């Protein structure tokens, strides 16, 4: 007998549905952490850890690049959830509850479009590419 089948006769959840639910919960937790880290009731260590976790989760640069087979996604599958778990333990429960509700409200409003941040990230990458190009040009020519 399948344990996932409920008494009402609903279909069992597929693995894909479970993974989507976990990803949604992780994303919601990241938003909660992002909102809560600025609260004065959060310790400086928890704030520092929260900033690092959120920055790493949303950064396009990974510890292990994704193009490396198998190992490329291990950091995303292990480090980010582990960082979120630890951060949620470091932030006081009353603060988390307050900001979970706020994160849920923001989720219902839809994804904000922050074009300025995107433009800054693109400008930084272009600047780094230009600096690397100039360095290589001077090195070899």
Explain what the structure shows.
The model has no long low-confidence stretch (mean pLDDT 82). The chain has helices at 15-36, 44-58, 71-90, 93-109, 115-140. The chain is built from 5 helices and no strands. It is an all-alpha fold and 141 residues long. Helix 1 packs across helix 4. The chain folds into 2 domains: 15-110, no CATH class; 112-141. The chain is globular and about 65 Å long. The N and C termini lie far apart (72 Å).
Mean pLDDT: 82
- Topology pattern, helix = H, strand = E: HHHHH
Counting structural domains, the number is 2
Overall 3D shape: globular
The percent of residues in helical segments reads over 70%
- Quote the distance from N terminus to C terminus: 72 Å
DSSP strand tally? 0
Give the count of helical stretches.
5
- What is the CA-atom radius of gyration, in angstroms? 20 Å
Weakly predicted, low-confidence segments: none
Looking at how many chains there are and whether they match, the oligomeric state comes to: single chain
How much of the sequence lies in strands comes to under 5%
Secondary-structure class: mainly alpha
The main sheet comes to: none
Give the arrangement of secondary structure elements.
Blueprint: H1 15-36, H2 44-58, H3 71-90, H4 93-109, H5 115-140
Helix pairs in contact: 1-2, 1-3, 1-4, 2-3
Defining traits:
141 residues; 5 helices
Quick structural gist:
The protein is an all-alpha fold.
């Amino acid at each position: 007998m399948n344990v996932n089948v409920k008494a009402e006769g609903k279909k069992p959840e597929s693995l894909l549905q479970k993974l989507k639910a976990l990803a949604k919960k992780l994303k919601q937790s990241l938003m909660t952490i992002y909102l809560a880290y600025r609260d004065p009731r959060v310790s400086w260590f928890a704030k520092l850890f929260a900033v690092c976790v959120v920055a790493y989760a949303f950064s396009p640069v990974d510890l292990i690049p994704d193009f490396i087979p198998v190992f490329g996604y291990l950091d995303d599958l292990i480090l980010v959830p582990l960082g979120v778990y630890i951060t949620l333990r470091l932030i006081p429960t009353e603060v988390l509850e307050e900001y979970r509700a706020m994160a849920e409200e923001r989720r219902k409003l839809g994804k904000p479009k922050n074009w300025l941040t995107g433009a800054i990230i693109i400008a930084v990458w272009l600047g780094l590419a230009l600096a690397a190009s100039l360095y290589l040009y001077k090195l070899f020519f």
